Amino acid sequence: MTELALKGAPVDRARLLRLLQDYGVYAGVAVLLLVNIALTPHFLSTENFRTQAVQVAPVLIVALGMALAIGSEGVDLSVGSVMALSTSLLSLYLGYGPWVALIVAMIGGAVVGLANGSLIAFIGVQPIVATLALMVAVRGIALVLLPQLKDVRDSGMSSLGSGDLLGIPYLVLIATALALVVGFIVKRTTFGRQLLAIGDSRPAAQLAGLPVRRVLILVYVIAGVLAAIAGVLATARLQASDPTSLGTLMELSAITAVVVGGTPLSGGRIRIGGTVAGAVLIQLLTATLIKHDLPPSWTQIAQAVVIVLAVYAARERGKR
Protein backbone atom coordinates (compact mmCIF):
# COMPACT_ATOMS: atom_id res chain seq x y z
CA MET A 1 0.00 0.00 0.00
CA THR A 2 2.85 2.33 0.89
CA GLU A 3 4.62 1.53 -2.39
CA LEU A 4 1.49 2.37 -4.39
CA ALA A 5 1.11 5.64 -2.53
CA LEU A 6 4.71 6.57 -3.25
CA LYS A 7 4.27 5.73 -6.92
CA GLY A 8 1.13 7.82 -7.10
CA ALA A 9 2.64 10.90 -5.46
CA PRO A 10 4.66 12.13 -8.49
CA VAL A 11 1.61 11.76 -10.72
CA ASP A 12 -0.47 13.89 -8.36
CA ARG A 13 2.31 16.47 -8.17
CA ALA A 14 2.59 16.64 -11.95
CA ARG A 15 -1.15 17.07 -12.27
CA LEU A 16 -1.14 19.80 -9.63
CA LEU A 17 1.63 21.68 -11.45
CA ARG A 18 -0.25 21.36 -14.75
CA LEU A 19 -3.42 22.72 -13.19
CA LEU A 20 -1.44 25.53 -11.57
CA GLN A 21 0.00 26.63 -14.90
CA ASP A 22 -3.23 26.28 -16.87
CA TYR A 23 -5.73 27.65 -14.36
CA GLY A 24 -3.73 29.16 -11.51
CA VAL A 25 -4.15 32.71 -12.79
CA TYR A 26 -7.94 32.38 -12.85
CA ALA A 27 -7.91 30.91 -9.35
CA GLY A 28 -5.72 33.80 -8.21
CA VAL A 29 -8.16 36.35 -9.63
CA ALA A 30 -11.06 34.57 -7.92
CA VAL A 31 -9.25 34.48 -4.57
CA LEU A 32 -8.37 38.17 -4.72
CA LEU A 33 -11.95 39.03 -5.63
CA LEU A 34 -13.28 37.05 -2.67
CA VAL A 35 -10.72 38.58 -0.30
CA ASN A 36 -11.62 42.10 -1.39
CA ILE A 37 -15.35 41.44 -1.26
CA ALA A 38 -14.91 40.26 2.33
CA LEU A 39 -12.36 42.77 3.60
CA THR A 40 -12.37 45.90 1.40
CA PRO A 41 -15.15 48.44 1.98
CA HIS A 42 -17.14 49.51 -1.12
CA PHE A 43 -15.24 47.04 -3.33
CA LEU A 44 -18.44 45.96 -5.10
CA SER A 45 -19.35 49.50 -6.11
CA THR A 46 -19.70 50.34 -9.79
CA GLU A 47 -17.21 53.19 -9.47
CA ASN A 48 -14.56 50.86 -8.04
CA PHE A 49 -14.95 48.34 -10.85
CA ARG A 50 -14.75 51.17 -13.38
CA THR A 51 -11.55 52.44 -11.76
CA GLN A 52 -9.94 49.00 -11.72
CA ALA A 53 -10.87 48.37 -15.36
CA VAL A 54 -9.50 51.73 -16.50
CA GLN A 55 -6.23 51.24 -14.61
CA VAL A 56 -5.65 47.74 -15.98
CA ALA A 57 -6.17 48.77 -19.63
CA PRO A 58 -2.64 50.14 -20.31
CA VAL A 59 -1.05 47.17 -18.53
CA LEU A 60 -3.05 44.75 -20.64
CA ILE A 61 -2.19 46.51 -23.90
CA VAL A 62 1.54 46.43 -23.12
CA ALA A 63 1.25 42.80 -21.99
CA LEU A 64 -0.27 41.82 -25.35
CA GLY A 65 2.87 43.01 -27.13
CA MET A 66 5.05 41.38 -24.49
CA ALA A 67 3.22 38.08 -25.05
CA LEU A 68 4.17 38.15 -28.74
CA ALA A 69 7.82 38.85 -27.88
CA ILE A 70 7.96 36.10 -25.25
CA GLY A 71 6.15 33.72 -27.59
CA SER A 72 8.98 34.21 -30.09
CA GLU A 73 11.45 33.23 -27.32
CA GLY A 74 12.38 36.84 -26.70
CA VAL A 75 11.43 39.71 -24.42
CA ASP A 76 10.93 43.47 -24.76
CA LEU A 77 12.31 45.50 -21.87
CA SER A 78 11.84 48.80 -23.73
CA VAL A 79 8.04 48.97 -23.46
CA GLY A 80 8.01 51.31 -20.46
CA SER A 81 10.39 53.69 -22.19
CA VAL A 82 8.26 53.58 -25.33
CA MET A 83 5.32 54.72 -23.21
CA ALA A 84 7.45 57.64 -22.03
CA LEU A 85 8.45 58.46 -25.61
CA SER A 86 4.83 58.36 -26.76
CA THR A 87 3.71 60.78 -24.04
CA SER A 88 6.51 63.19 -25.03
CA LEU A 89 5.62 63.01 -28.72
CA LEU A 90 1.93 63.35 -27.94
CA SER A 91 2.54 66.51 -25.97
CA LEU A 92 4.81 68.01 -28.63
CA TYR A 93 2.45 67.36 -31.55
CA LEU A 94 -0.91 67.86 -29.84
CA GLY A 95 -1.09 71.36 -31.29
CA TYR A 96 -1.58 69.80 -34.74
CA GLY A 97 -4.64 67.90 -33.50
CA PRO A 98 -5.13 64.73 -31.41
CA TRP A 99 -5.13 62.38 -34.42
CA VAL A 100 -1.82 63.73 -35.72
CA ALA A 101 -0.29 63.47 -32.24
CA LEU A 102 -1.61 59.90 -31.87
CA ILE A 103 -0.17 58.83 -35.23
CA VAL A 104 3.21 60.41 -34.45
CA ALA A 105 3.29 58.63 -31.06
CA MET A 106 2.51 55.28 -32.72
CA ILE A 107 5.19 55.90 -35.36
CA GLY A 108 7.65 56.55 -32.54
CA GLY A 109 6.74 53.19 -30.99
CA ALA A 110 7.05 51.46 -34.36
CA VAL A 111 10.53 52.94 -34.93
CA VAL A 112 11.72 51.67 -31.54
CA GLY A 113 10.24 48.26 -32.33
CA LEU A 114 11.96 48.28 -35.72
CA ALA A 115 15.29 49.04 -34.02
CA ASN A 116 14.74 46.22 -31.52
CA GLY A 117 13.74 43.75 -34.22
CA SER A 118 16.63 44.69 -36.51
CA LEU A 119 19.20 44.23 -33.75
CA ILE A 120 17.75 40.83 -32.93
CA ALA A 121 16.96 39.53 -36.43
CA PHE A 122 19.86 40.88 -38.48
CA ILE A 123 22.73 41.43 -36.06
CA GLY A 124 21.93 38.53 -33.73
CA VAL A 125 21.89 40.52 -30.49
CA GLN A 126 20.09 38.71 -27.66
CA PRO A 127 16.60 40.16 -27.12
CA ILE A 128 17.25 41.00 -23.48
CA VAL A 129 20.42 42.94 -24.42
CA ALA A 130 18.94 44.73 -27.43
CA THR A 131 15.79 45.84 -25.65
CA LEU A 132 17.70 46.79 -22.50
CA ALA A 133 19.86 49.14 -24.57
CA LEU A 134 16.77 50.67 -26.18
CA MET A 135 15.08 50.93 -22.79
CA VAL A 136 17.84 53.24 -21.55
CA ALA A 137 18.25 55.18 -24.81
CA VAL A 138 14.55 55.76 -25.48
CA ARG A 139 13.85 57.00 -21.96
CA GLY A 140 16.68 59.47 -22.44
CA ILE A 141 15.26 60.64 -25.78
CA ALA A 142 11.83 61.07 -24.18
CA LEU A 143 13.33 63.30 -21.47
CA VAL A 144 15.25 65.34 -24.03
CA LEU A 145 12.03 65.96 -25.96
CA LEU A 146 10.05 66.82 -22.82
CA PRO A 147 12.27 67.45 -19.76
CA GLN A 148 9.42 67.88 -17.27
CA LEU A 149 5.78 67.19 -16.60
CA LYS A 150 3.35 69.06 -18.84
CA ASP A 151 -0.41 69.31 -18.55
CA VAL A 152 -2.39 67.97 -21.51
CA ARG A 153 -5.21 70.37 -22.29
CA ASP A 154 -7.19 68.94 -25.19
CA SER A 155 -10.87 68.07 -25.37
CA GLY A 156 -10.20 65.02 -27.53
CA MET A 157 -7.68 63.59 -25.06
CA SER A 158 -9.98 64.43 -22.17
CA SER A 159 -12.85 62.58 -23.84
CA LEU A 160 -10.61 59.59 -24.56
CA GLY A 161 -9.38 59.39 -21.00
CA SER A 162 -12.67 59.84 -19.18
CA GLY A 163 -15.40 59.16 -21.76
CA ASP A 164 -17.44 56.01 -22.18
CA LEU A 165 -19.82 54.19 -24.50
CA LEU A 166 -22.94 52.76 -22.86
CA GLY A 167 -21.21 53.07 -19.51
CA ILE A 168 -18.03 51.26 -20.59
CA PRO A 169 -14.91 53.49 -20.61
CA TYR A 170 -13.23 54.00 -23.96
CA LEU A 171 -9.95 52.76 -22.50
CA VAL A 172 -11.55 49.43 -21.59
CA LEU A 173 -13.19 49.10 -25.00
CA ILE A 174 -9.88 49.77 -26.77
CA ALA A 175 -7.99 47.29 -24.59
CA THR A 176 -10.67 44.64 -25.18
CA ALA A 177 -10.64 45.20 -28.93
CA LEU A 178 -6.84 44.95 -29.07
CA ALA A 179 -6.91 41.72 -27.04
CA LEU A 180 -9.39 40.21 -29.50
CA VAL A 181 -7.29 41.33 -32.48
CA VAL A 182 -4.04 39.95 -31.04
CA GLY A 183 -5.80 36.73 -30.07
CA PHE A 184 -7.08 36.36 -33.63
CA ILE A 185 -3.61 37.03 -35.04
CA VAL A 186 -2.03 34.36 -32.84
CA LYS A 187 -4.67 31.70 -33.40
CA ARG A 188 -5.94 32.28 -36.93
CA THR A 189 -3.23 33.82 -39.10
CA THR A 190 -0.16 32.53 -40.89
CA PHE A 191 1.91 35.14 -39.05
CA GLY A 192 0.75 33.74 -35.71
CA ARG A 193 1.64 30.17 -36.65
CA GLN A 194 5.03 31.28 -37.93
CA LEU A 195 5.68 33.20 -34.74
CA LEU A 196 4.94 30.15 -32.59
CA ALA A 197 7.09 27.93 -34.81
CA ILE A 198 10.01 30.35 -34.46
CA GLY A 199 9.54 30.50 -30.69
CA ASP A 200 9.48 26.72 -30.52
CA SER A 201 12.71 26.31 -32.51
CA ARG A 202 14.29 29.09 -34.53
CA PRO A 203 16.82 26.82 -36.31
CA ALA A 204 14.03 24.44 -37.35
CA ALA A 205 11.94 27.39 -38.58
CA GLN A 206 14.87 28.63 -40.68
CA LEU A 207 15.39 25.16 -42.17
CA ALA A 208 11.68 25.03 -42.99
CA GLY A 209 12.02 28.24 -44.99
CA LEU A 210 9.96 30.47 -42.71
CA PRO A 211 10.63 34.25 -42.92
CA VAL A 212 12.23 34.37 -39.48
CA ARG A 213 13.71 37.86 -39.74
CA ARG A 214 10.53 39.42 -41.07
CA VAL A 215 8.41 37.81 -38.36
CA LEU A 216 10.75 38.87 -35.55
CA ILE A 217 10.84 42.46 -36.79
CA LEU A 218 7.03 42.52 -37.01
CA VAL A 219 6.76 41.12 -33.49
CA TYR A 220 8.80 43.96 -32.00
CA VAL A 221 7.17 46.61 -34.18
CA ILE A 222 3.75 45.47 -32.95
CA ALA A 223 5.00 45.44 -29.35
CA GLY A 224 6.32 48.99 -29.82
CA VAL A 225 3.07 50.26 -31.32
CA LEU A 226 1.01 48.66 -28.54
CA ALA A 227 3.26 50.23 -25.89
CA ALA A 228 2.86 53.61 -27.60
CA ILE A 229 -0.94 53.23 -27.58
CA ALA A 230 -0.79 52.36 -23.88
CA GLY A 231 1.28 55.50 -23.27
CA VAL A 232 -1.27 57.65 -25.11
CA LEU A 233 -4.16 56.15 -23.14
CA ALA A 234 -2.34 56.60 -19.83
CA THR A 235 -1.61 60.22 -20.75
CA ALA A 236 -5.25 60.80 -21.69
CA ARG A 237 -6.39 59.35 -18.37
CA LEU A 238 -3.92 61.39 -16.29
CA GLN A 239 -4.33 64.53 -18.45
CA ALA A 240 -0.58 65.07 -18.17
CA SER A 241 2.62 64.04 -19.97
CA ASP A 242 5.33 62.89 -17.57
CA PRO A 243 8.16 60.99 -19.34
CA THR A 244 10.06 60.79 -16.06
CA SER A 245 7.64 58.38 -14.41
CA LEU A 246 5.20 57.13 -17.05
CA GLY A 247 5.87 53.50 -17.89
CA THR A 248 8.35 52.99 -15.06
CA LEU A 249 8.54 49.25 -14.25
CA MET A 250 5.77 48.60 -16.78
CA GLU A 251 7.95 45.87 -18.29
CA LEU A 252 7.81 44.05 -14.93
CA SER A 253 4.01 44.21 -14.82
CA ALA A 254 3.73 43.08 -18.45
CA ILE A 255 6.12 40.14 -18.03
CA THR A 256 4.30 39.12 -14.86
CA ALA A 257 0.91 39.18 -16.60
CA VAL A 258 2.21 37.12 -19.53
CA VAL A 259 4.10 34.52 -17.51
CA VAL A 260 1.41 34.10 -14.86
CA GLY A 261 -1.09 33.74 -17.69
CA GLY A 262 0.65 30.56 -18.85
CA THR A 263 2.90 31.76 -21.69
CA PRO A 264 6.27 30.04 -21.12
CA LEU A 265 9.48 32.07 -21.25
CA SER A 266 10.90 29.35 -23.50
CA GLY A 267 8.59 30.50 -26.33
CA GLY A 268 6.45 28.51 -28.75
CA ARG A 269 3.17 29.16 -26.98
CA ILE A 270 1.04 32.24 -26.32
CA ARG A 271 -2.05 32.38 -24.12
CA ILE A 272 -3.90 35.62 -24.73
CA GLY A 273 -6.78 34.75 -22.41
CA GLY A 274 -4.30 33.95 -19.67
CA THR A 275 -2.49 37.24 -20.34
CA VAL A 276 -5.75 39.16 -19.88
CA ALA A 277 -6.37 37.34 -16.60
CA GLY A 278 -2.76 37.94 -15.58
CA ALA A 279 -3.12 41.69 -16.11
CA VAL A 280 -6.31 41.67 -14.04
CA LEU A 281 -4.52 39.70 -11.33
CA ILE A 282 -1.68 42.25 -11.15
CA GLN A 283 -4.14 45.14 -10.95
CA LEU A 284 -6.20 43.46 -8.22
CA LEU A 285 -3.04 42.63 -6.27
CA THR A 286 -1.84 46.23 -6.50
CA ALA A 287 -5.25 47.62 -5.56
CA THR A 288 -5.59 45.23 -2.62
CA LEU A 289 -2.25 46.27 -1.13
CA ILE A 290 -2.95 49.97 -1.65
CA LYS A 291 -6.45 49.81 -0.18
CA HIS A 292 -5.04 48.15 2.93
CA ASP A 293 -2.37 50.85 3.38
CA LEU A 294 0.66 48.77 2.44
CA PRO A 295 3.56 50.65 0.77
CA PRO A 296 4.05 50.40 -3.03
CA SER A 297 7.27 48.44 -2.52
CA TRP A 298 5.17 45.49 -1.34
CA THR A 299 3.49 45.40 -4.75
CA GLN A 300 6.86 44.88 -6.45
CA ILE A 301 7.80 42.16 -3.97
CA ALA A 302 4.47 40.42 -4.50
CA GLN A 303 4.89 40.56 -8.29
CA ALA A 304 8.37 39.06 -7.99
CA VAL A 305 7.02 36.18 -5.89
CA VAL A 306 4.22 35.56 -8.41
CA ILE A 307 6.74 35.46 -11.30
CA VAL A 308 8.98 32.97 -9.46
CA LEU A 309 6.03 30.68 -8.74
CA ALA A 310 4.80 30.85 -12.33
CA VAL A 311 8.25 30.16 -13.80
CA TYR A 312 8.77 27.29 -11.34
CA ALA A 313 5.47 25.72 -12.37
CA ALA A 314 6.38 26.03 -16.06
CA ARG A 315 9.89 24.62 -15.46
CA GLU A 316 8.62 21.61 -13.55
CA ARG A 317 6.02 20.89 -16.21
CA GLY A 318 8.68 21.09 -18.93
CA LYS A 319 10.66 18.33 -17.24
CA ARG A 320 7.82 15.84 -17.65
TrEMBL record:
Membrane topology: Multi-pass membrane protein
Transmembrane segments: 23-44, 56-72, 92-112, 119-146, 166-186, 215-234, 246-265, 272-290, 296-314
This protein's UniProt keywords: Cell membrane, Membrane, Transmembrane, Transmembrane helix
Compartments reported by the entry: Cell membrane
Principal subcellular localisation of the protein: membrane
Taxonomy, superkingdom: Bacteria
Name of the protein: Sugar ABC transporter permease
Organism: Streptomyces camponoticapitis
Protein's gene: rbsC
